Amino acid sequence: MRSQIFKTKCNTTEKVFIFLLTLSLLFLAYKVFCEQITIQNVFIFLLLTGLFLVLTFLAYFDFKKMEVHNTTSLYLLISLAILNILLYLIFKDSTGIRVIGEWVYNPYNNMIGAIVLGSIFQLIVLISKEKALGQGDVRIALITGLLIGMSNLLEWGYITIFSALIYGLILAYKKKRFKGLKIPFVPFMVLGSMVVILLSL
User: Fold this and answer.
1) Are 160 and 187 in contact (CB under 8 A)?
2) Rounded to an integer, what distance in angstroms lies between the CA atom of residue 66 and that of residue 58?
3) 82-104: per-residue pLDDT in tens?
4) Distance CA 201, CA 187 (A)
5) How is the chain split into domains, by residue range?
6) Which positions ≥6 away from 99 have C-beta within 8 Å?
7) What pLDDT score was predicted for residue 8?
């Protein structure tokens, strides 16, 4: 059962995920409430906290099971797609909507980012015949694009690739081999997304 991942003993992996999530939420609280506490700020904080919790769950699930949680990722993808489409249709502004501080949420930019990143990941899936990446990773790529937009994909790519590379080297050193080594990619995609969002606030 998939729910069994929450019934296992809290070891180093779980502690690392809890620590990183706690650190992210503390930094989020600082960035959102550093100037003043308003109803809008509280709403944004709660919204982003929920988003970070869902993303962390997806990262943790992939780390433990080496697969993407289909239901959660699909619901998140549909929700973000509807949100971006509605915001674009309502505001009809390609420059974006200033949410808080320096953070500008740009539905047009986000949809372009989702199309570009999703296409790249789908191409990798087809070329590698799902040996390098799976369809679940394509969904996470679409979610990433809808969250951070086209303009932030380069920064996201650096964070994601280098963190995955460092983890892969550490894992290879521990296992004393490179061949046949499998690395979950979603945790690093999520890490990149959360860092980009936090730095944008």
Assistant:
1) no
2) 11
3) 999 999 998 876 677 887 777 88
4) 22
5) 2-200
6) 44, 105
7) 57
**First-last CA distance in the chain:** 38
* Beta-carbon contacts of residue 107 (< 8 Å; ≥ 6 apart): 83, 84, 85, 87, 88, 91, 96, 97
| pLDDT tens column, 156-175 | 999 999 999 999 898 888 87
Q: Can you tell me the distance from the alpha carbon of 160 to that of 154, in angstroms, rounded to the nearest whole number?
A: 10
For residues 125 and 53, what is the distance between their CA atoms, to the nearest angstrom? 27
| % residues pLDDT > 90 (the chain) | 62
User: Shortest CA distance to 119 belongs to which of 145, 95, 94?
Assistant: 145
- Compute the distance between CA of residue 115 and CA of residue 68 in angstroms, rounded to an integer: 20
> From the centroid of its chain, how far is CA 103?
17
